[in-house]
Design a protein that fits this description.
This protein is mostly helical. The protein folds into two domains: about 210 residues, Growth Hormone, Chain: A (Up-down Bundle); about 210 residues, Growth Hormone, Chain: A, CATH 1.20.1250.20. The protein has 15 helices and two strands. A two-stranded antiparallel sheet has the order 1-2. Strand 1 and strand 2 form a beta hairpin. The longest helix is centred in the C-terminal third of the chain and has 34 residues. InterPro entries: MFS, MFS_dom, MFS_trans_sf. It comes from Thermosporothrix hazakensis. It is a multi-pass membrane protein.
Length: about 450
């Protein structure tokens, strides 16, 4: 008996259960393939297809549009289909379709002799990314619901931490691998890795023994189910507060992502060549935060971790915006990364306790468009304000100097801090129903 129970106890402590071990393996490998592919796409367009061309930056920018457009047009309605369909079968189908779509790019990657016209290469890439995004819009909500089905409530924090730990690791490793592969062999290997990762994910999800899904009674129309999902989100005060907080967070994030390199050079007076190391420090903070998130979530609960992560992140980013030298900036970036991981890890278990299973697909499908909308509002707005109004800003107030980049990064930090304070004061009630304390 001891020979059987000891390994099983060790296994369940580490990987929760057999189903989640398979699920986590498949999702992690698939995410790694995505990170390698995403990093390669930018290199492919910038340094090969549009290299030394005036339209090169525009071609790279259109990539974001190819992801944003289907997200806005089909993202919210995708959740309705996910709530109707079998979640595991939906994931399996989307993995196969995405693998096939990625492999369709091989002919334009240089495998076949002869150079394709750059315009046709871009059209093929844009169309492929558009279709892959549609598949992901169906895959992601189904994945969240399957996660809820196979992970016990008391282990959801650990499950979320495991996913973010692997993602944080891959965010460090994938760009390095993508650069090595692209500059030595072109885009071919990134396509093969990504397609292979989808097929491995397919095999892992196929082996998951998901609980049988209850057959739904007479279905309402697509529009009725969509509006019922929107009504549920807007009618649940706690869930509504979470979404508003995330929207404010991403408004700030769009500013930071856009102006980060400029702040690094002009406000910190650092060499641009050091910026990759600066980002690596933030990624290291993300990784450490993800690895320790389970410990924090068990002691604080998902709700308090969410609230505290936002407030501390806003404080660290505000201090960062006032930095004028590298060491404090690196330290604050590392601490911000830790808070970011705690925040990200808390969202999934928090949402799963707030949302009934029959609404999960629609709720998760509404989160991504909302967050992307916030970034698309703040990122170009920050660039516009710098270019037209703030570029020559040179002011002092209460002994503090304000230039264009540190000022807008301060605004970004205040948005994050406001989102945290809003979460704290708006979600003081119903804590017992939101989270399980361990």
């Amino acid at each position: 008996m001891s020979a059987e129970t000891a390994p099983r106890g060790w296994f369940t402590r580490l990987l929760i259960n057999r189903n989640y071990a398979l699920y986590w393996t498949g999702i992690s490998i698939s995410n790694f393939g995505d990170f390698v592919f995403s990093s390669t796409l930018l290199l492919w367009i910038s340094y090969q297809i549009g290299h030394n061309q005036a339209w090169g930056p525009l071609a790279a920018g259109v990539l974001e549009l190819c992801i944003a457009l289907p997200t806005f047009l089909f993202g919210p309605i995708a959740g309705v289909f996910v709530d109707r369909w079998n979640k595991r079968r939906t994931m399996l189908l989307m993995d196969v379709l995405r693998a096939a779509l990625i492999l369709l790019l091989l002919p334009v990657s240089g495998v076949i002799p002869g150079r394709l016209d750059p315009l046709w290469q871009l059209i093929c890439i844009y169309g492929d990314i558009f279709l892959c995004t549609l598949c992901t819009l169906l895959f992601s909500p189904a994945r969240a619901t399957l996660n809820r089905d196979i992970v016990p409530d008391e282990r959801r924090e650990q499950a979320s931490s495991m996913i973010y730990s692997s993602n944080s690791t891959f965010m460090i490793l994938a760009p390095l691998l993508a650069g090595i592969l692209f500059f030595s062999a072109g885009a071919v290997w990134a396509l093969i890795i990504n397609a292979g990762s989808f097929l491995i994910s397919f095999c892992c999800i196929l082996a998951v023994q998901a609980p049988a899904e209850a057959k739904r009674s007479e279905q309402a129309s697509l529009f009725q189910e969509f509006t019922s999902g929107v009504r549920y989100v807007t009618g649940n005060s706690t869930l509504r507060c979470v979404l508003v907080s995330l929207f404010l967070l991403m408004l700030g994030g769009g500013i930071t992502n856009t102006l980060g390199p400029f702040f690094f050079e002009h406000s910190l007076h650092a060499a641009p060549a050091l910026f990759p190391q600066f980002e690596a420090v933030g990624s290291a903070g993300l990784l450490l935060g993800a690895l320790s998130a389970t410990w924090g979530l068990r002691r604080l609960g998902a709700l308090r971790t969410f609230q505290g992560g936002l407030v501390l992140m806003g404080i660290f980013e505000l201090l960062f915006s006032r930095s004028t030298s590298l060491f404090p900036a690196f330290l604050l970036t590392f601490l911000t990364g830790i808070c970011n991981s705690f925040l990200n890890t808390s969202v999934s278990p928090l949402a799963m306790r707030l949302v009934p299973r029959e609404y999960l697909g629609r709720v998760f499908a509404l989160i991504e468009p909302g967050m992307r909308l916030a970034q698309l509002i703040s990122a170009p707005l920050a660039g516009f304000l710098i270019s037209h109004y703030l570029y020559h800003l040179d002011a002092s107030f209460l002994g503090l100097h304000f230039g264009p980049y540190d000022t807008l990064l301060g605004v970004s930090a205040l948005l994050v801090l406001v989102s945290g304070l809003y979460a704290c004061f708006s979600m003081r009630t119903k804590k017992n129903s939101v989270e399980t304390r361990h």
